[in-house]
Amino acid sequence: MLKKFYKISKLLILISMLLIACSDQGSNQGQPAKLKEPLVEVKVHGESGNNPKVTLPLLIWDSYEYKDIIVHSYLGGKEKGCVITEGNGRPIKLDTKIKFLEDAPCLYSRLTTEDGVPHIYNAGLMKILIVSTGEEVYTWSKAVELTK
User: Fold this and answer.
1) Whole-angstrom Cα distance, residue 124 to residue 85?
2) Are 91 and 35 a contacting pair, CB within 8 Å?
3) Whole-number Å distance between alpha carbons of 139 and 15
4) Cα separation of 1 and 146, whole Å?
5) CA distance 19 to 13
6) Residue 46 is inside which H or E element, if any?
7) CA dist 99 to 73, 112, 121, Å?
8) Of 50, 49, 31, 52, which Cα lies nearest the Cα of 41?
């Protein structure tokens, strides 16, 4: 009888420790990060060296589509990429407190601008947490800098 009591006591202590550990992780979700101006280098065909940098719009999206996009038009090469529309995005301020949650599975993104023109960028998306609202949204990977 006493052995059963000790086994049950040990089991309850172990379960309590696991519950405490798991609840601490949930309240500290994400890695500290800050927003920065999203710049991406645009390759110019036939030229080497000084490729121009383009500033992407600092926006957030609730979701994205993950599908084949033409990345290398001169080769006809398609890659899986994140597809977003500028009109579906919302602006976010650089000083907004955020946490990094996870990378989206794309290395390339296709942004359709307000004028309906699609642009392919060598930039993925990241899922972030807006600390003040608790919203989980996506923004450019080039717009997020991890901090400690």
Assistant:
1) 14
2) no
3) 38
4) 54
5) 10
6) none
7) 35, 26, 24
8) 52
Nearest alpha carbon to residue 67 among 82, 54, 52, 56: 82
Classify burial at 101, counting beta carbons within 10 Å of its beta carbon; exposed 0-12, middle 13-18, buried 19 or more: middle
Angular region, 76: left φ>0, alpha ψ -120 to 50, beta rest:
left
Determine the Cα–Cα distance for residues 82 and 104; give it in Å rounded to an integer: 8
Question: Cα separation of 54 and 133, whole Å?
Answer: 30
Q: Is the dihedral of CA 141, 142, 143, 144 positive or negative?
A: positive
Query: Rounded distance, CA 109 to CA 102, Å?
Result: 16
Q: Which two tokens stand for residue 84?
A: 């977003």
Least Cα distance to 123 among 56, 72, 70, 63 occurs for 56
Q: Going residue by residue through the chain, which has 148 residues, state the pLDDT in tens, using 9 for 90 and above.
A: 656 655 555 554 555 554 444 444 444 589 999 999 999 988 776 566 678 889 999 999 999 999 999 887 666 678 899 999 999 999 999 999 999 999 999 999 999 999 999 999 999 999 999 999 999 999 999 999 999 8
